[in-house]
Design goal:
Elements (H helix, E strand, L loop, with lengths): L4 E4 L3 H12 L4 E4 L4 H6 L5 E3 H9 L4 H6 L1 E3 L1 E6 L2 E6 H5 L4 E3 L2 H14 L3 E3 L3 E6 L7 E5 L5 E5 L2 E4 L17 E16 L8 E4 L6 E5 L5 E7 L10 H12 L13 E15 L2 E2 L2 E3 L5 E2 L7 H20 L4 H28 L7 H16 L1 H11 L14
Parallel strand pairs: 1-2, 1-12, 2-8, 5-14, 12-19
Antiparallel strand pairs: 3-7, 4-7, 5-6, 9-10, 10-11, 13-16, 13-17, 14-15, 15-16, 17-20, 18-19
Helix pairs in contact: 1-6, 1-8, 8-9, 10-11
This protein binds 8-demethyl-8-dimethylamino-flavin-adenine-dinucleotide and P-hydroxybenzoic acid.
């Protein structure tokens, strides 16, 4: 078999890349170990930066996002019993984010690739990439019926997430890894209850961080800081709601957390990780395959989309004999990746309770929070990073 670009992984990075390449008349084959149903049900991110929304819109993918996505012009930061609004619109000259679940982005992308007749193979096994230093790298996989395939490509995109195989095929001496684990995890729930807030609430509390997000006018998404090795069996729904209510409470204001049936729950570890460079020969890594951020900054999905918006035109040029944009791919992406890595680390360490931290550390955290909500300069820094930095100009990902 022959294709121009072999793509490993049908998450947001792989699916969007395949669509952006198709807009440029470039063929791809996407292989995915999970089933379509699993990919469409996996609960993950929910916040999309304005640049990512524009990219989806200009790629013709935002029909449902424009109807169902919820535009948000700010967030609340809560600490020391007070809730403060950070107004992104006012601080950044009108920039916003949109709440639209990653699962919905993935559903939209899968439907579009299938409608366009794109090669998208679910439930594959034994994925391998080979001959990456040649001009004809090879992608091998076994399809859902047990038939082994070998696809000769011009380039391969490793969009297979943090636990994928592509990053591991790069000889270890050729990559630099920077990594930090955090001494806590997030317990996330999806709940069948209208949000108790008009904007996301990031709450710093002596018992640990909590986040109130949402999915729709009737469905809420909430997170709690828990121990890094915590087991979900220790958290019956009643305990989760009691802990959330405590960490969001605002005595004397009449505000209350609405509770409802829990539709989904899970625990996510927190890690910062950057593997560089993002290219090895004709293998290009994109999204979580190359870098992970803790979810506090809402950046992972946005970085995945930003990477492939750079990769699509770079592969187009490479396939026409111009290696320039492909040579610049890694450095271009890593500039945004490191900014988001710093912002996510900063938000995470400012908002979580650090186990074992002394009173000095606790006072420094509170001072930082008071500074962010009282200084226009500090609030603007948060706002411009949250809405996406550098701001994305008109997407270069689309064929001109
Ligand atoms: P994905 O989504 O992990 O997709 C990779 C795909 O590759 C498949 N795969 C393979 N396929 C074939 N062969 C193999 N050998 C394979 N190995 C793996 C996998 O099955 C999978 O389908 O990576 P991608 O596309 O890079 O997308 C990245 C995002 O998913 C991730 O960064 C975000 O979800 C992170 N994130 C958030 N990002 C945001 O921008 N805003 C948010 O609000 C936000 N909240 C979150 C988050 C992540 C969370 N979790 C669960 C990690 C909240 C949470 C709780
Ligand atoms: C979410 O809605 O899932 C979400 C929102 C903001 C974050 C992380 C996750 O920082």
């Amino acid at each position: 078999m022959r294709t121009q670009v072999g793509i490993v992984g049908a998450g947001p990075a792989g699916l969007l890349l395949s669509h952006l390449l198709a807009l440029r008349g470039i063929d791809s084959v996407v292989v995915e170990i999970r089933s379509r149903a699993y990919c469409e049900a996996r609960q993950r991110a929910g916040v999309i930066e304005d640049g990512s929304v524009r990219l989806l819109r200009e790629a013709g993918l935002a029909g449902r996002l424009d109807r169902e996505g919820l535009e948000h012009g700010g967030i609340y930061l809560q600490f020391a019993g007070e809730r403060h609004h950070i107004d992104f619109r006012e601080l950044t000259g009108g920039r916003t984010v949109t709440v639209y679940a990653q699962t919905e982005v993935v559903k939209d992308l899968i439907a579009r690739r299938i409608a366009a007749g794109g090669a998208l193979h679910f439930e594959v096994t034994d994925t391998e990439v080979d001959h990456l230093e040649s001009e004809r790298p090879v992608l091998r996989y076994t399809d859902a019926t047990g038939v082994r395939h070998e696809v000769t490509c011009d380039a391969i995109a490793g969009c297979d997430g943090f636990h994928g195989i592509c990053r591991l095929t790069i000889p270890p001496g050729l990559t630099t890894v920077r990594e930090r684990e955090y001494p806590y995890a997030w317990l996330g729930i999806l709940a069948d209850v209208p949000p108790s807030t008009d904007e996301l609430i990031y709450s710093h509390h002596r018992d640990g961080f909590a986040l109130h997000s949402l999915r729709s006018p009737t469905v809420s998404r909430l997170y709690l800081q828990v121990e890094p090795d915590e087991s979900i069996v220790n958290w019956p729904d009643a305990r989760i709601w009691a802990e959330l209510a405590r960490r969001f409470e605002l005595p004397g204001t009449g505000w209350e957390l609405k509770q409802g049936p829990v539709l989904d729950k899970g625990i996510t570890p927190m890690r910062s990780y950057v593997s560089a460079p993002m290219r090895y020969g004709r293998l290009f890594l994109a999204g979580d395959a190359a870098h992970i951020v803790p979810p506090t900054g809402a950046k992972g999905l946005n970085l995945a989309m930003a990477d492939v918006s750079v990769l699509a035109p770079a592969l187009d040029a490479l396939l026409s004999g111009d290696d320039g944009p492909a040579a610049a791919y890694s450095a271009t992406c890593l500039n945004r990746v490191w900014r988001a890595t710093h912002f996510s680390w900063w938000m995470t360490t400012m908002l979580h309770r650090t186990p074992g931290a002394d009173e000095m550390a606790a006072e420094l955290q509170l001072s930082q929070l008071r500074y962010v909500v009282s200084s226009r300069a500090a609030a603007t820094s948060l706002a411009e990073n949250y809405t996406g930095y550098p701001p994305v100009p008109a997407p270069a990902a689309l064929a001109s």
